[in-house]
Design brief:
Number of helices: 3
Mean pLDDT: 87
CATH class: Mainly Beta
CATH superfamily: Protein of unknown function DUF192
Oligomer: single chain
Structural class: alpha+beta
Largest sheet: 7 strands, mixed
CATH topology: Jelly Rolls
Radius of gyration: 15 Å
Strand order of the largest sheet: 5-4-6-3-2-1-7
Number of domains: 1
Helix content: 10-25%
Low-confidence stretches: 1-20
Length: 147
């Protein structure tokens, strides 16, 4: 079992550290700042997310799109840097924010959340972004698919 887990983790690090070929959604904040997000829309990306990456480039993040709205919890397993976690509902309004979520190098990892209300999306950005943009519950975001 440990060997299988090791193979999965190595494969994940090889395939998931290269974001090329991923859809990109631009998320505009009320301040005018636009965050370029890689879409986590496959089971592998939903599972691994930003794991195994060295850092996020400025102005970038990961957008998790879930099949249903719910009180989704997220983990920072195998992350190497802290992130801000922003939960967003179906109407693109922020429902909860967890700034400066610490990376968890190995299991067991404590999940972050659940948010106070159901969310359809989770945005992970570099730690400090939510404070810089003054992200609060109720804030409306605009999503645009980059073609």
């Amino acid at each position: 079992m440990l060997i299988v887990l090791s193979v999965v983790l190595v494969a994940g690090s090889v395939f998931l550290t290269n974001p090329s070929g991923s859809d990109t959604i631009l998320i505009a904040f009320p301040s005018g700042t636009v965050l370029e997000t890689e879409v986590a829309d496959t089971p592998e990306k939903l599972l691994f997310g930003l794991a195994f990456r060295e850092a996020l480039s400025p102005g970038s993040g990961m957008l998790y799109i879930f099949d249903t709205s719910d009180r989704h919890r997220v983990r920072t397993t195998a992350f190497t840097f802290p992130v801000d976690i922003i939960w967003v509902d179906e109407s693109h309004h922020v429902v909860d924010v967890h700034p400066n979520a610490a990376p968890c190098p190995r299991e067991p990892c404590t999940p972050f959340g659940p948010p106070v209300e159901n969310a359809r999306y989770v945005i992970e950005t570099a730690a400090g972004f939510a404070e810089q943009e003054r992200v609060v519950s109720g804030m409306e975001l605009k999503f645009t698919l980059r073609m």
